[in-house]
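It is worth pausing here to work through a concrete case rather than discussing structure prediction in the abstract. The textbook approach is simple: state the sequence, then state the predicted structure, then interpret. We follow exactly that order.
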Amino acid sequence: ATPSIPVLTVDWATRDFYEAVNEHWEAFRPEHINLISIGGGARDLQVRGGLTSDKHADTVQSSTDTSSVWVSADHRCIVWCKQLVLAVNRALADMVEKSSKQISSDRDFRERVLNYHLVHRSGGKKYKKGKLHTKPVKFNS
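Step two, the predicted structure:
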């Protein structure tokens, strides 16, 4: 719940800090980390949505764009919004490999799980490879 760019640059130290962070991510992108940037949404008056946009993030969205999150959370309550916390917890649980009982080292798999739980999940609570949505229902006319 932190902006990726400064809300207001009032001194050189703030500018230098954000530049150093961005330079670090450009030079060294660790394979064992998936970066997610989630903004508060329309009710977030402290950090507007554009400030949570991050070119280094695997997933960038607002809390209201997250599947299974029905409410807009402001900047302070985004970290304890139960709907968002549950979506992140489910993603973390699905990343655990059954054999090692550790989070998977496969970055693409982790990204698919995150996208399923945070972006595409329309039903069900567990990620199943190749099954993003339930089967379509056809109506006879």
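Step three, interpretation. The radius of gyration is 17 Å. Residues 12-27 form the longest helix (16 residues).
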